[in-house]
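A further point concerns the way the authors explain their paired sequence and structure data. The central task, working out the structure tokens from the amino acid sequence alone, is never made concrete. I therefore recommend that a typical entry be quoted early in the introduction. An entry of this sort, consisting of the sequence and the corresponding backbone structure tokens, reads as follows:
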Amino acid sequence: MNKTLLATLLLSAIFSSTSFAAEQSTTETETYSPSEPLVLTPVVTEENDASLVEDAPKFDDTMHYFVGITGGMADLSLDVNTGTDKLQSPDASGFFGADIGFYTAGGKGRIYYSYQKMSGESDHNDKKAIDTDVSLHLVSADYIFRADETINPFVGAHVGYMNADSKGDGYGSYKQSGPLLGMQAGVAWRMSDHFTAEVGARHSATQSKEQEAWSGSNTKSDLKSITTFYMSANYRF
């Protein structure tokens, strides 16, 4: 009798312990089962976030000086009349020059002085007849679009002064000088905070009224306009 009672109590204790462990395991499983899919979110700090963005070179709110060199092709519109024949205008030829000036605050405009030197040859009966050397002194002002971007189109106008020296065997010689008016346009590429490259075109019109006589002959001429297509490299301080 006692043995039977003892066995019954022992079985009851084992069964109760097993049931409790099973219930606890089920509760823990329900507690830690995710109700939503696990998503890993990367940690973004200010340092690695800034490294993903490459800022374009920008102008600040102060004035900056710059210097530059320029070169390209020049087309001289020169009428030469020998009395019996009219010579061809010079063929397009190379030119070189230099610029110095400043950008306004914010980089939306610039004012600069340019010196340019060029020459041309006028032919007669398929032979070189006249050499013309021209030097220009220009003061230009440009308006720059998209100043906060890397690529900047621009338009502008200029005033200046021209000196031209023409001469040829059998034709005599002639010097022409006078004021110029004109305009320019182009596109600049801001490669860094200091270096800029640009391409553009400039047209300058002389203010002469008529052809002038040369010394030593009956030749007359008039340099009417100058058109240049150029590339420049600038350094901004």
Remarks:
- The chain has two helices and ten strands.
- The mean pLDDT is 81.
